[in-house]
UniProtKB/TrEMBL annotation:
Family: Belongs to the aldehyde dehydrogenase family.
Record-level GO BP terms: glycine betaine biosynthetic process from choline
Entry protein name: Betaine-aldehyde dehydrogenase
Assigned EC number: 1.2.1.8
Pathway as given in its UniProt record: Amine and polyamine biosynthesis; betaine biosynthesis via choline pathway; betaine from betaine aldehyde: step 1/1
UniProt-listed InterPro entries: Ald_DH/histidinol_DH, Ald_DH_C, Ald_DH_CS_CYS, Ald_DH_CS_GLU, Ald_DH_N, Aldehyde_DH_dom, BADH
GO molecular function: betaine-aldehyde dehydrogenase (NAD+) activity; metal ion binding
Record domain Aldehyde dehydrogenase: where: 14-479
Length: 483
């Protein structure tokens, strides 16, 4: 990297941490240091909030015609597209995910900026029918103001793009904080944006731990909205912190997502979707279909086929094209996933495959865990109720539709669910009854920029992507004019 080396971007300038501290960033494949970045704390976050506040209040961004904001966002999309291979390699170095997955992320990200660039000037407000004679009522959307944005480590740049693009399109100014362990691609697109004449203070990127930098963004009285993606417990802490000045809050939290296979399904296609639904990024996906529910009549056959396919998944360096699954993000996270095997055992689940770190010597320096299959699971087991965030599938069986819908809904999560059937009536019935923000019929883990994404229940608050994602960054104003 160039200007970003050990710096944060605040008020249009690259600055080292006030404390002078730095942090080393590791490659999860081999534990080697790939970069050293600035390690901010509350003072850096405060500086960034002040810069964002000043930029917002000056109107230098929010008063621009929305179409002009769109032009800059479009240029940023083009830069991202030009640099997508470098960005993808950086993401793989930082997260361990396969290069193929990182390339998908990058093409999505350029598209997200293009989408919101185009949407920026499409909402001209509306005239509503006023009951008062000789008057006019207009309803307009205005930018919320200064937005604190906190993203996780599993999709570092994708999650940052879900937040940055709509906020900037709406006319907000932002302070974004990537996860402290995966900051490299967010720094890189900040660098791309810095070369594009966004006014100073519109985009600010701060680095550092959640408990200091993130907490400061959540608490700061000059921040109008906090958008957070991460775990449920962190989300609750942020809600409490945000209550100080009644900030708007957008939360994308965890998931434990049912993937239901009815016996009449296209089982070949369902099998592919089950594999794709979990083993992306070694299962470290909020929408992983890690809770598999199979109708009893086809259970044994399906499990046998799944097991043999899972056993063939090739683990390795995400940079190698033959690799199908990379490592987990860190030694700490590996230990957490591993500890769930003891939970599964005491729950009484049956270990069909995996359950340990691999023995291959070439994987010994990385944070690898084998694809793991647990059968004989029940809805009340901890291994079924909690988000493991690793390459682990639990299997439950059911015998009828009512039973499986009730079981699937009996969770604190409500991010996504999917089911497979050939029965058209059942498609409508089950989709309506599942209490999740996204429901996939005869597919799994399909998401795109145009469709809203977010959780029911404790999986979140608000929506990202699509029109809804832009609306999150706006306030609604009613202007009444008595002639
Ligand atoms: P995390 O909650 O540990 O951290 C997420 C971010 O919050 C990081 O940037 C971290 O520094 C920051 N943070 C931590 N403590 C904070 C605090 N007290 N105040 C403010 N910020 C704080 O989550 P993670 O481990 O990085 O990510 C994994 C979780 O994210 C999983 O639960 C996953 O399901 C969820 N996730 C959800 C979605 C979604 O779309 N719903 C997408 C990706 C990840």
């Amino acid at each position: 990297m160039t200007g970003t080396e050990k710096s944060m971007y605040i008020g249009g300038r690259w600055l080292p941490a006030v404390s002078g501290k730095t942090r080393r960033i590791f490659n999860p494949f081999n534990g080697q240091v790939v970069a050293e970045v600035a390690e901010g704390d509350r003072d850096d976050a405060k500086k960034a909030v002040n810069a964002a506040r000043q930029a917002f209040d000056s109107g230098v961004w929010s008063d621009l015609p929305a179409a002009e904001r769109g032009v800059l966002l479009y240029r940023l999309a083009e830069k991202i597209a030009e640099q997508s291979e470098e960005l993808a390699r950086l993401e793989t170095l930082d997260t361990g995910k396969t290069l193929e997955e990182s390339r998908w992320d990058m093409s999505d990200i350029a598209g997200i900026f293009r989408y919101y660039a185009g949407l920026a000037d499409k909402d001209g407000g509306e005239l509503i029918d006023s009951p008062i004679p000789h008057s006019e009522s207009r309803v307009v959307r205005e930018p919320v103001g200064v937005c604190g944005q906190i993203s996780p480590w599993n999709y570092p740049l994708l999650q940052a793009a879900w937040k940055l693009a709509p906020a900037l399109a709406a006319g907000c100014t932002v302070v974004i904080k990537p996860s402290e362990i995966t900051p490299l691609t967010t720094l890189k697109i900040t660098e791309l944006a810095a070369g594009l004449n966004f006014p100073d203070g519109v985009i600010n990127t701060v680095l550092g731990p959640g408990h200091s930098v993130g907490a400061e963004l959540a608490e700061h009285p000059l921040v109008d909205l906090i958008s957070f993606t991460g775990g449920i417990e962190t989300g609750k802490t942020i809600m409490r912190a945000a209550s100080g000045n009644v900030k708007k809050i957008a939360l994308e939290l965890g998931g434990k997502n049912p993937h239901i296979i009815f016996a009449d399904a296209d089982l070949d296609a369902a099998l592919e979707a089950v594999l794709n639904g979990v083993f992306f990024h070694a299962g470290q996906i909020c929408s992983a279909g890690s809770r598999l529910m199979i109708e009893d009549r086809v259970h044994d056959r399906f499990v046998e086929r799944l097991k043999s396919r899972m056993a063939a998944i090739r683990l390795g360096d995400g940079m190698e094209s033959a690799t199908q699954m990379g490592p987990l993000i860190s030694a700490e996270h590996l230990a957490k996933v591993e500890s769930y095997m003891r939970v599964a055992e005491s729950d009484g689940a049956r270990l069909e495959l995996g359950g340990t770190r691999p023995e291959a010597p070439e994987l010994k320096d990385g944070f690898f865990f084998l694809p793991t299959l647990l059968t004989g699971c029940q809805g009340d087991m901890r291994i079924v109720r909690e988000e493991v965030f690793g390459p682990v599938i639990t299997v439950e069986t059911f015998s009828d539709e009512d039973e499986v819908v009730e079981l699937a809904n009996a969770t604190i999560y409500g991010l996504a669910a999917g089911f497979w059937t050939r029965d058209a009536d059942r498609m409508h019935r089950v989709a309506r009854r599942l209490r999740f923000g996204t429901v996939w019929i005869n597919d799994f883990n399909v998401y795109f920029t145009q469709a809203p994404w977010g959780g029911y229940k404790q999986s979140g608050l608000g929506r990202e992507l699509g029109r809804h994602g832009l609306e999150e960054y706006t306030e609604v104003k009613h202007v009444f004019h008595n002639h």
